[in-house]
Amino acid sequence: MPNYLWFIIATVALIVGYYTYGKFVEKVFEPNPERKTPAITQADGVDFVTMPKWKLWLIQLLNIAGVGPVFGPIMGALYGPTALLWIVLGSIFAGAVHDYFSGMLSVRYKGANVPQIVGFNLGKLAQQFMRAFAILLLLLVGVVFATAPANLLAKLTPDYLDFAVWLGVIFFYYFVATLVPIDKLIGRIYPLFGALLIIMAVGITVAMFVNMPAEFYNWADWSKNNHPSELPLWPLMFITIACGALSGFHATQSPLMARCLHNEKEGRFVFYGAMIAEGFIGLVWATVGMTFYPDAAALQGVINSGTASAVVYDSSIALMGSVGGIMAILGVIVLPITSGDTAFRAARLTIAEVIKIDQKRPANRLYIAVPVFALGIALSQIDFNIIWRYFGWSNQTLAGIMLWAAAAYLYKRGKFHWICSIPGTFITAACISYILYEPNMGFGMDIGISNIIGAVGAFIILGIFLVKGKSEVAGAPADA
Fold this sequence. Notes:
Elements: H1 4-19, H2 21-29, H3 38-41, H4 53-64, H5 68-76, H6 82-108, H7 114-122, H8 124-156, H9 163-179, H10 186-211, H11 233-240, H12 249-258, H13 267-291, H14 296-355, H15 362-379, H16 384-412, H17 418-437, H18 447-468
Helix pairs in contact: 1-6, 1-13, 2-6, 4-10, 4-12, 4-13, 5-13, 5-14, 6-12, 6-13, 6-16, 6-17, 7-8, 7-16, 8-9, 8-14, 8-15, 8-16, 9-14, 9-15, 10-13, 10-14, 11-17, 12-14, 13-14, 14-15, 16-17, 17-18
Family: Belongs to the peptide transporter carbon starvation (CstA) (TC 2.A.114) family.
InterPro entries: CstA, CstA_N
Keywords: Cell membrane, Membrane, Transmembrane, Transmembrane helix
């Protein structure tokens, strides 16, 4: 069988997953089309604004698809074809489930952000932890999603428009986009960017089929870990490939569109469907890594020389020519920029929720936005690779907590919680193992011991959940 058929099979699996497992997840949650959404009951003209579902889908896709489904799968490709399996299965059974519940629980909880969602289902202590954790993650995301496109733009423009200049331009845009009503800027131009994003992914795919069909996955070996540095596949690959499979950052973004949803029945298309589309983007770039380069060592060399942005630049120009390549690169630039601004927007709203400052008045938005951006600019001076490591682990940790919160929501109502608790257990094991093993930011323990502790720890958490998960949390809305 030609290797390119694996790509086709994986793509079809994502589509089938949306129409089968996506419907099953929706059935378990039971959306109510007669129930008024926060966009109607709390309309404020700034953050709670109804928009059509096709527009919400495109904006949600752009919000969640930063550099994660590009850079993560490129770096994950170093491990070989197991990355493809994680992207497909992770998107269907973990990532899209996570995104659906983070969006729909926000709808049920009057547009609440992820810390409140966690608090209503796991308790006040979890809520306080999540407030600090989510704000930190959003700042890291904003920084990562500013520096990555600044690097790419610096490659495309004259020398006087260097990295520092583009970084300043991007942060200025972020600041403006964070403050203005969501339908005035994001609601108007992001659907156009969404079209560019889709054209980019399809264009790169067609170019690979036309220019190098025989090279698909030419060095990928299912029988072993392909990483040239022999880094352990578990748990590193499952932390490296977050966006494109499962990403906690999405839980901070789904409430933005939850505040704009007109009908609960639109949730599967907007939340579950956008994640499946992101899975396809991740599939494309993991395939580029295993197809465009002759071996894993060559891919590793390019990543080491200029981060994954160098892979995007080289492969896009080579596969699609100068014009098509630049269009593809622009699509990748759009990804992080349209997630970075909403990351800072979500940080503003989360902080406002904590300190109880109404966000209708522009001055109130400024009180929060100015110090947030000052801290973000300071963080942008830290080495990108260090920021990425912390982003990766904190991102997946947040995903695990959100899945446990969704599992608790279902468990308290006698519904099939395993659709959330199984992926929650899985990613919890990966996160525990990773932080114990990681030599630079973690405890530097032996990988075998780390994996044992990770697995045992995750199952202990599952056991605690099964014993105490049905307990009601004081203050949680009874009609959610």
